[in-house]
Amino acid sequence: MRLLSFSLLLVPPALAATAGSFEVVGNTLVSAMMMFMGNNHKVYIIDKAEGNEAKLIRAQCKGNRDIDTHESTVMDIATNTFCSSGYHVPNGSFVTFGGNGAAGPGASEGSEVTPGAFFATWDQTYQDFDGGQSIRVLNPCTSDDDFTSPAVSVRRRWYSTAESLGDGTIVLIGGFQNGGYILRNVPNNNPHDGAELTYEFYPSNGQTPQEVNFLVKTSGLNAYPLTWLMSSGKMFMQANLSSTLWDYKDNTETALPDMPNGVVRVYPASAATAMLPMTPANNYSQTIIFCGGSDMPEPAWGNFTYPFINTWEYPASKDCQRITPEPADGSSPQYIQDDDMPQGRTMGQFIILPDGKLLVVNGGLNGTAGFSDKGTLLTSQNPFGESFASGPVGTPAIYDPEAPAGSRWSSAGLSTSNIARLYHSSAILLPDASVFIAGSNPNLDVNISDSVPYPTEYRAEKFYPPYFSSSTRPVPSGVPSKLTYGGDPFDITIPASSYSGSGNAAANSTIVSVVRTGWTTHAMNMGQRYMQLRNTYTVNKDGSIVLHVAQMEPNPNLFQPGPALLFVVVNGIPSNGTYVIIGSGAVEAQPTAAAAQLPANILSDANGSASGSSTGNGNGDSPSTSSGTSHIALIAGIAGGVGVLALLAVGVGICLARRRRARIRAGIAASKAAQTAAVATPYQKVPSVNNSQVFMNQDHNDERPWSKPEDNAWNSSTQSFDAYHDMMAPHASAHYTDAPAGNYDYQHHQQGHYDYQQQPHY
To answer: Stretch 139-168: mean pLDDT, rounded?
Structure first.
């Protein structure tokens, strides 16, 4: 197999790309289901085990550290990473958790199934192992990068969420043991069916996983539960229509208001979500925003096998809500209606930009995430192939959280990409302050045929936000490589050549922002956060500006330890980001110190010496193929063997070392027994109850009924089910008008009642 080498070059400080435009920057070799940025020079792309065009060479690959030649290397991932979760650890390494059983071509079950198990342990064709309990650690740019670790979690987790604590410990929350479109039968009499409703820690503290009542309550619509660590150390969680503050220490919850307007935000509704920037102006308040998703009525969500309506005809929501779970004034948290998005979106993704604005990209006008070759309960003939969504949204939009209500959204001057980015697409902020966009594969396996509406997408793009209209970028010096929680401030110098006009005005406009780009999949960036550091300034007579900058706020819960990018933003124009490590670099109680007292501002009548524009408001009208100043070269790494497996594409001069195949098999074989033994209650085959009782299946297609016996999981004679049913009724503004109340056989076949959003064929 040939290895593809292409590199990402940062935009030179004095050379601007076309603001508001897209640029096709290369081929990812693998479909970009998951993605994270390892450091200033590498973007890692991970896919599940499927038929990607890149194949692993059995010969030993040499690790490459040469970021000047930007060589690309295939990396081996031995276990199936399908719909994993991931996060960073304090030293800058990244960990990917869980996944699915071994898979073969067409998303079929792998060739080897352990008797009594409900998942395959190995597939001969794709040569992938079961990944349900796998823990895979990658240390960017070292000789011991290893995505083949035999380490396992205590429980199987597929569609789980990872969230870090203030000491750097990662909490693994929820997920599936096995499942389908959504995790429920109809009627939903067993919240444990196929579900993993517990939490555990990485690194493990030896605690037996405990059940989270919130996950029981939100049964059916709690895949990839949405979580954010709060300043108190508690965790805000949202799933189905419910919200809570969860204390992981004693596993207690404080119920918060339900999501307004009946809009589901978690997968497969897949809204754009983010914590808004924490700044001195808002006293580092933690506010969460939710935009888009779906207000489909409760019965329409269907069951394990498929939705009960033709989702691709049902418009996605444009509704936006904010909530501050821990108000500083002690008031009761409430959802606040925010400005609607310009268009409804499912699978839209928020990227926090260095200037504190939020960019939303990707997604569809109609439907939900997910795919199937079964269609829906209404029809087996899906006009959009296997996709549950339609109408790709190619025009980004920018949200300004500081703008007055009614004027926070804008798409003015932003180009439209002609590349569909639907299910299994991803996006991430790059150090040059552009946004890298890749992926989209709403198909059971790789399908690049022109005959399918939305084929597997390998083209990668960069989007250049409006600040790329400036011909001058700040070039700060003195930026540290490590930040602490409180303690002595530091100075950053901005030369006069980095701006034009009044030095006092430039200094007053300057902010220092720390952005964590996160680990991205399924329209989420796990760990994404933004903090503006406090600063004062001195304007020198030569026009240079010295910023006196405080360290991180002395509360690690606000911004957990680990890697991030530090940007200096002058007149709205960001510098290239500097890779920094926040905290001690270890999983431990982070050292803190008092916040420093900063010196007073010192003004001068000096001016900057930059020529041309040094403010960023440009418009972009170039096509997605426009040339630019930045070129991406990705590196593909493969999971599995000689087949085309869960590949890891590594971009931007990657340095990866692939382990010998014999070592992989030996290590994984040693862990297979542990994985099998750790399954607490294996599923058993049971007969179908009735035509509407459709059970889960490993590959979303298998028609064999599977279910966990209720007597092993839930005592229905002593427990009330009222606790876990989110009551979802059609909102008054919902587009769908003929949802049958209580008719779970869903025998209506009326169509044409949706405000269907049409978009040109991609």
So the answer is: 79
Is the separation of the CB atoms in 229 and 590 below 8 Å?
no
Please indicate whether residue 28 or residue 87 has the higher confidence score (pLDDT): 87
Long-range interactions of 377-382: CB distance < 8 A, separation 24+: 377/302, 377/306, 377/307, 377/308, 377/309, 377/746, 378/308, 378/309, 378/310, 378/746, 378/749, 378/751, 379/310, 382/310, 382/312
Q: What would the two tokens of residue 420 be?
A: 């569909």
Integer Cα distance of 561 and 556 in angstroms: 7
Q: Is 100 helix (H, G, I), strand (E, B) or coil?
A: coil
204-222 as b/e: b if 16+ CB within 10 A: eeeeebeebbbbbbbbbbb
As a whole number of angstroms, the distance between CA 596 and CA 394 comes to 45
Indicate the pairing of strand 425-429 with strand 409-410.
Answer: unpaired
CB within 8 Å of 325: residues ≥ 6 apart: 228, 230, 236, 243, 245, 256, 286, 288, 333
CA separation (Å) from 229 to 46, 169, 607?
26, 12, 43
- Rounded to two decimals, the pTM is 0.83
Backbone angles phi, psi at 228, to 5 degrees: -145, 130
pLDDT in tens, 676-700: 333 332 222 223 222 222 222 223 3
Residues 656, 730: Cα–Cα separation, whole Å? 50
- Of 63 and 103, the structure prediction assigns the larger pLDDT to 103
Sort 477 into a burial class: Cβ within 10 Å, 0-12 / 13-18 / 19+: exposed
Strand 519-521, strand 524-526: pairing: antiparallel
Q: How far is the CA of 380 from the CAs of 152, 373, 523, in angstroms?
A: 38, 8, 27
**What are the angstrom distances between the C-alpha of 233 and each of 532, 589, 606?**
20, 12, 46
Backbone phi and psi for residue 721, each to the nearest 5 degrees, phi listed first: -85, -5
SS3 173: strand
For residue 151, what are its two tokens? Answer: 């380490």
Q: At 675, phi and psi to the nearest 5?
A: -65, -45
**What is the rounded distance in angstroms from the CA atom of residue 705 to the CA atom of residue 702?**
8
User: What's the average model confidence in pLDDT over 659-671?
Assistant: 40
